[in-house]
Amino acid sequence: MSGPINAQTRLDIKGTDLGVEFDDVLEIVIGVLVCNLTDMGSFYQAGQSVSCMTGISNELISGRIGITVRSGESTKTGESTAKFFYRDPMISGFSPTEGQVAGGTEITITGMYFNTGRNIEASFGEAPCNSL
Predict the structure, then answer these.
(1) Omega before 96 cis (within 30°)?
(2) Which of 78, 83, 85, 126 has the fewest CB atoms found within 10 Å of its own CB?
(3) Bridge partners of 61?
(4) Rounded to whole angstroms, how far apart are CA atoms 15 and 100?
(5) What b-and-e string marks burial along 36-51, b requiring 16 or more CB atoms within 10 Å of the CB?
């Protein structure tokens, strides 16, 4: 799980005992950063899944996802075994370096973390890539 630095990503959390209603989800954090629950009620499935918008980090960090849920008169907390990573895609190269002005050249882009975030897009200047 990962999201870009200096941006927000909708994080979907699946599990059990995640409250009877959306208001039972009191807090979600990624390490020390709060994951925003505002306007996320429409993604909630009682007891099964909840979504939040990640807080903004200005640096490469990672952390476990923690959740606090109201359970009757008390609260319960849980923590993921997996970590969420704040990182940006890194391009190390691409080929070929030239192509037709009309487009249509297949380009191979190499690098790391291309699966960061929810919406994966590539472009050259203003020209979007048609297939990824």
Answers:
(1) yes
(2) 126
(3) 86
(4) 49
(5) bbeebeeebeeeeebb
What's the topology of domain 2-86? Immunoglobulin-like (2.60.40)
- CB-based contact 99:105 (threshold 8 Å): yes
Long-range contacts formed by 76-85: CB under 8 A, 24+ apart: 76/17, 78/15, 80/13, 82/1, 83/1, 84/1, 84/2, 84/3, 84/11, 84/30, 84/31, 84/54, 85/1, 85/2, 85/3, 85/60, 85/61, 85/116
pLDDT digits (tens, 9 = 90+) for 70-126: 998 999 999 999 999 999 999 999 999 888 888 888 999 999 998 888 788 888 888
In the numeric block, which tokens belong to residue 37?
């629950």
Q: Which two tokens mark 54? A: 């990640």
Phi and psi (nearest 5°) for 77?
-125, 150
Per the CB < 8 A criterion, the answer to whether 117 and 9 are in contact is: yes
| pTM score, whole prediction | 0.80
